[in-house]
Amino acid sequence: MTRIAIYDTTLRDGSQGEGVNFSLQDKLLITTQLDLLGVDYIEGGYPLSNPKDAAYFRAVRDLDLKHARVTAFGMTRRKDVAAEDDIGMKALVGVAMPAVTIVGKSWDFQVLEVLGVSLAENLSMITDSVAFCAAHTPEVVYDAEHFFDGYKKNPEYALRTLQAAADAGAAWLVLCDTNGGSLPDEVSKAVADVVANIKVPVGIHTHNDCELAVANTLAAVAQGARQVQGTINGIGERCGNVDLCSVVANLSLKLKGYEVLLPGSLVHLTEVSRYVHETANMNFRPGQPFVGTSAFAHKGGMHVHGIRKNAASYEHIDPALVGNERRVLVSELSGKSNIAEKLAEYGLEQDSALLTKVLDRVQDLENEGYQFEAAEASFVLLVERLAGRETSWFSSLGYHVSVSGRPDGAAVTEATVKLKAGDAIEHTVSEGDGPVNALDGALRKALEHHYPRLMEMRLFDYKVRVINGREGTAARVRVVIESQDDDSVWGTVGVSENVIEASWLALIDAFDHKLTKDARSSRSRVALAQT
Ligand SMILES: CC(=O)SCCNC(=O)CCNC(=O)[C@H](O)C(C)(C)COP(=O)(O)OP(=O)(O)OC[C@H]1O[C@@H](n2cnc3c(N)ncnc32)[C@H](O)[C@@H]1OP(=O)(O)O
Ligand SMILES: CC(=O)C(=O)O
């Protein structure tokens, strides 16, 4: 097996992505996760850049890392300054990490136009910087910035920059597609040339500006690159870096003969991807290959029919290999197979007449603007109602919402709810930050003393979508509410021409689902205790 070293730069190049700003604590938590995953190198930051990165290198020493080597990143010495006097060089070796990564210029145009030095001075900057760091740090990684652009324009000079780094003691030469504009065959050709002519292990660092970062990385590995640099979820400057989740999964599952991470790590890939999204406060990318929530989500009826017979019919791998899971969605594109699969998932009985009835109703409701993909709780309640098994926790007798302006300009929202719970009639009122908050408050006042477990539940997301926009204010709206308790998250949906009515429908489904699911799980606990 050929070992490919995985070098993570989420905390350095990833943090150059728009909207990404890790706190020191975030960086340390991510470091721990990456180490558990079995990443070989973690580029922690740029010690000269800012106080947070400098503090990271002090704090990271206290982590008990099992496998990863933390590297500090910086550029070659400044022009006209000796390496030992350069503040960047001193900062790099001063953090005393097991490895240092130095970025230097490979493209003659960049040297002349951007650095503003001669081609010979750039070679000296590389030599001096690598030699200085190699004398003070166990391992020096040399990142050849713009290598592929430089190689296309002036291959002889680009190769000389690498040779300078190799001769000065670099342990790795990492070829960077800094602008992300290269194509796989260009990458292949250049990597093959470097591997054939320079006797230091080669790495690859790609950006995704042409959506080719993964392809370029795999092309480089095929030509002999033995280190892959990238970020979790592909975050990074402009269109991002190569997504290490995809690289690792492809190297482990699609290509033969490569070994990455630690044995058994792959099943943690989805968890780490979501952890980084959460920590970076970024939305998940549902369609992210391998680890996204939609990566194994089946919607078309024919597909679900196929996977029920054999999952390989519509899945390129078993989702469990990367810690992900199969999902079946219910929509107007469903067939009876989707409904059957969903009923089985919720432990509901299924008979052919019920499947047909549910499918017909789903298709009618979706035609009216409902969407059950993000509102499975409303779907399950619909099934219970159609099966005649619905438990009547409460029935609505009406509601009223008013919004009035106060003299100081603030708006006051008040909701009144009237409902029947058991034999009791409840009539409650609540103020709120807005209509949904006020209705939620009034519903709780009416129901919590009947059903105290409702106190465990909270609403955490509310989305409104206009369905037939051309009708102007008479358009229908779809409201999807996400609720949560200690055990689960569930979505409910309401559709109406009136946004408050649509919210009310989604809200009462949310309360209904909480009571129904708790009753179902306590029934199964009793059944289990009796066996
Ligand atoms: C491809 C990459 O991702 S490389 C990493 C890019 N990351 C970042 O830039 C984030 C961190 N950067 C920073 O915190 C700051 O830019 C610093 C601390 C590095 C430098 O800040 P400043 O001294 O204010 O310089 P500024 O950022 O404006 O310009 C960069 C300077 O570095 C020089 N420089 C750029 N690349 C190199 C290099 N490889 N070797 C030596 N000097 C370089 C430039 O010529 C310029 O110097 P000049 O002003 O004397 O011409
Ligand atoms: C080093 C680096 O981040 C790049 O060249 O893209």
From TrEMBL:
Functional pathway: Amino-acid biosynthesis; L-isoleucine biosynthesis; 2-oxobutanoate from pyruvate: step 1/3
Gene Ontology BP, a term: L-leucine biosynthetic process
Protein's UniProt name: Citramalate synthase
Database matches in PANTHER family: (R)-CITRAMALATE SYNTHASE (PTHR43538:SF1), ALPHA-IPM SYNTHASE/HOMOCITRATE SYNTHASE (PTHR43538)
Keyword S-adenosyl-L-methionine: no
Keyword Amino-acid biosynthesis appears in the UniProt entry: yes
Principal EC category: transferase
Cited CDD domains: DRE_TIM_LeuA3
One annotated GO molecular function: 2-isopropylmalate synthase activity
Listed SUPFAM superfamilies: 2-isopropylmalate synthase LeuA, allosteric (dimerisation) domain, Aldolase
